[in-house]
Automatic annotation (TrEMBL):
Transferase among keywords: yes
The name this protein goes by in its record: tRNA-specific 2-thiouridylase MnmA
Organism: Mycolicibacterium hodleri
Subcellular location(s) per record: Cytoplasm
Family in the record: Belongs to the MnmA/TRMU family.
UniProt xrefs under PANTHER family: MITOCHONDRIAL TRNA-SPECIFIC 2-THIOURIDYLASE 1, TRNA 5-METHYLAMINOMETHYL-2-THIOURIDYLATE -METHYLTRANSFERASE
């Protein structure tokens, strides 16, 4: 089988490529150039896709004896991930750029090009498993990335391979060292890859500009002014620009954001509890819509934010009624539905959250 391996220059994708070679496949490595200024996208463990990363990936390919290429996807990445990220925050939402990158770049643009060139499958270093075409959690629960892959449809999963999902991360590093791969101890990337400074507010501010508004409490009292709703997320406690806690002495949190009026509402932590979710653009990883209401677990963040729920399709939306509340859920986040399974929790659907409410 001809397999294209997306090689980021990290240890995970390097071992994924090595395993594909071991299995006897015709393997080619590719590194995605996602920035028009690659020298600016890595600072230690922050960022990715730099010239340093491309060089690391090339050296691994040399050790493995496989062809290696760098493909320029910078324009596609800017349009489908960075611009989407900025516009989503400008609307008062909280997007996950890793989800969008998988949905629109790696398993859409990249996969489509791979298939057009005659490859049979795309392999990546994601921590997830595929079993009988079903997407499941990785063995290493702490590193599991099935959440950010939950937006893939059945066709995309049919031509995907996740070679390391059956192995804990420490074992992956040990394997890389045994193979003589120089990336064995390379730090994992953290935070948002295209914001290596880690200062999301400054990144957004430079692109959105100043859009002043007010921070108000539950009674409508103006507590402070701000330069734009992009500087806030639901559940945020610090950096609100207000003098202190509420009259009861309890801390205040961002409870809702009205981007049109520029109003940021703050209140008690109890106001963050969410009991139902509505999501648009649902994706069904099996290829078939939900057959009536289903019991499942809903996850709303890459790590954490998990609750049992009953989910169903209503019109063109996916609706989940939670059995216990989640806190700090915002529009723009992705909800991924899991069905508990003895062989590892199976992803059954996903959707982009449009409404996070207290009741149905």
């Amino acid at each position: 089988m001809r397999v294209l391996v997306a090689m980021s220059g990290g240890v995970d994708s390097s071992v994924a490529a090595a395993r594909m070679v071991d299995e006897g496949h015709d393997v080619v490595g590719v590194h995605l150039a996602l920035s028009s200024a690659p020298g600016t996208l890595r600072t230690g463990s922050r960022g990715c896709c730099s010239k340093e990363d491309a060089g690391d990936a090339r050296r691994v390919a040399d050790v493995l004896g496989i062809p290696f290429y760098v493909w320029d996807f910078a324009d596609r990445f800017k349009e489908d991930v960075i611009d989407d990220f900025v516009s989503s925050y400008a609307r008062g939402e909280t997007p996950n750029p890793c989800v969008r990158c998988n949905e629109r770049v790696k398993f859409s643009a990249l996969s489509e090009r791979a298939l057009a060139l005659g490859f049979d499958a795309l392999a990546t270093g994601h921590y997830a498993r595929l079993s009988d075409g079903r997407l499941r959690r990785a063995v290493d629960v702490d590193k599991d990335q099935s959440y950010v892959l939950g937006v893939l449809n059945a066709h995309q999963l049919e031509t995907s391979i996740f070679p390391i999902g059956d192995t804990p991360k420490p074992k992956i590093r040990e394997e890389a060292a045994r193979r003589g791969l120089a990336v064995a101890d390379k730090p994992d990337s953290h935070d948002i890859c295209f914001i290596p400074s880690g200062d999301t507010r400054a990144f957004l501010g430079a692109r959105i500009g100043i859009r002043r508004g007010a921070v108000v409490d539950a009674g409508g009292t103006v507590l402070a002014e701000h330069d734009g709703v992009h500087g806030f997320t639901i559940g945020q406690r610090k950096g609100l620009g207000i003098a202190g806690p509420g009259p009861d002495g309890r801390p205040r949190y961002v409870t809702s954001i009205d981007a049109k009026s520029g109003t940021v509402h703050v209140g008690d932590v109890s106001e963050l509890e969410v009991w139902h979710l509505v999501g648009g653009r649902p994706v069904f990883t099996s290829g078939s819509p939900l057959d009536g209401p289903v019991e499942c677990d809903v996850q709303v963040r890459a790590h954490g934010g998990l609750a049992p729920a009953m989910a169903e399709i209503r019109g063109h939306t996916l609706v989940a009624t939670l059995r216990k509340p989640l806190r700090g859920v915002a529009a723009g986040q992705t909800m991924v539905l899991y069905r508990p399974d003895p062989d590892g929790d199976e992803v059954i659907a996903s959707a982009t959250i449009t409404v996070a409410g207290h009741q149905c």
